[in-house]
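Input:
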Amino acid sequence: MNNQFNQFRFWAIGLATSWLALFVLVPSLMVLVTSFLTRDADFLIQYEFSLAGWKSVLDPSFVSLLWDSLFMSVVTAAVCLLIAYPFSMCLMGLPKRWRGVILFLLIVPFWTNSLVRIYAIQFLLGKKGMINQVLQFVGLIDKPLDMLYSQFAVIFGLSYILLPFMILPIYSSMEKLDFKLLEAAKDLGANATSRLLRITLPLTLPGILAGCLMVVLPAMGMFFVADLLGGSKHSLLGNVIKNQFIQTRDWPFGAALSVLMILLLSFMLWLYYRATKMSNRSGGLNDSNF
Amino acid sequence: MTECKPLLQLNGVSKTFADNTVLDDLDLTIYDGEFLTLLGPSGCGKTTVLRIIAGFEQEDQGQVLLDQQNIAILKAEHRPVNTVFQSYALFPHMTVYDNIAFGLIMHKVPKAEIDGRVMEALRMVRLEDFAKRKPHQLSGGQQQRVAIARAVVNRPRLLLLDESLSALDYKLRQEMQVELKRLQRQLNITFVYVTHDQEEALSMSDRIVVMHKGKVQQIGTPREIYETPVNLFVARFIGEINQFDGQVTRRIDDNHVEVIAEGAEWVVQTDYPFAADDKVHILLRPEDIRITKPESDDEKIHMDGHIHECNYKGKTMDSYIRLSTGTTVIASEFFDEDDPDYDYRLGQKVAIEWFTGWEVVLPYEQSI
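Output:
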């Protein structure tokens, strides 16, 4: 029995480890190596050491693009947060069985491919899209609004796709919040605003951070959203990377960008890890330990 | 107690949660400066009384008067009442100092005053050195004291304590009982303490309110509650008690009747206007029963039996005596190893006796 279990454990862990090593670690190392190689027009790369790829990363035009991408991701996270936080609070006010139903409804759109859903948004936002038609019909506007192919459209699309990733961690952190603490705050004279700012917000900060992490990072990589809703002007980091590999064929540069993104992700995960470690010990965050 | 004025009054308060009547037309007066304990089994409604006073629950019917003013419209955050929660409910992300200062900040107490009052509260619960700690770095007893300091620092008119000691171990609980008593005298704040622990209630309270099924069963000093329970529930809930069922045969004088119980005729003392043929319960505390040799003594009520079981309790020896009628009686005596009479063999023939007047006689209650 015990021996059987050990064997099972060996195979289960071994399989997962080799899978990750083969399809995550090795390709990542290949990307890392590629970023230090020389670009070649015919064979994509030449096995010759070069820092050209990394030099392009520091190019001012690219830095502004990176900044643009980061800006859109952060705004997306902010929009999601502003919707998700009040939403989660309202959800907490509902009876338990209703919460489950609503969370389920939140997940349902995931069953449709996100590319298809972004096409749908294209239809919604277009010059002859549903929104413009309704606004014109009602008489609020004379000529159609230019919504598609703008930063607004990209942020709209990203927020739509990524909203559940903000709601779920925030909701789960609110569910863990001890209701007695709010009662105690009330007992000590705190009104609704004080209770929110001094108790609920600090104690759900781990959820907020997790949500932001799960929105900002994917938001930078979702190139198809920028392709379909942003046109040529509004690119995400993901678009740039995709273009280096497929169109411009500058593999070392693309690889360097990918490494940069992985580093960014690691840094944010580290921040999150530190924040949650603090909160696990003390049940929350405050300015002194973060 | 008599010169004290009423601080808070509950008049005909009822509360129902989804068809479950938790409080049923409850009347209760709390006097200024007293230590009042609400005692009862779980589900008797005692915590609901506390939550209604604190403002966490709204009464369905009746009034809550504070200083003769109806406080129904007053939200919990505006009531001059503070609660020490059973789970302490300390804010985990704040230091001990910030926890205690919270109420003062919320009430916009001037900054200059806050520091002095927080430090005073910390001194009072002997935690001056722990101001910078987080709650999770404190022991259970220390967290408990922070919770008390956080409440009393606001100088409430009424301090509500919801089973506040039940999470502590026995030794610490006893220390905290003494500490609470000391604090209450020192602060001169009215304490309303909720517990299901009768020993705790007896040792701390000025008055005890025994509750059962949403109703007050008896209000009185610990001594009144223990020595003259008004019904079987109170008698059985507080301490251990022996119960005999009997029937009145005749009245002897103003406060004595003769009853027949356990096949014998007893003369018992009672203020109830019992008449012949009335059914009664006769109750006796284990410590009021003496175990003697099975020889008759006319002065006292006297019954024969044999030792069925002995429990050594350290201070006392609890003996279970099976009477010749089949009833089992518990007698509790101070253990004295030098006295040869206290060492009983199982099965040893003995008799029990007590002085007339030590018993409590109650009218017969059905279905208990």
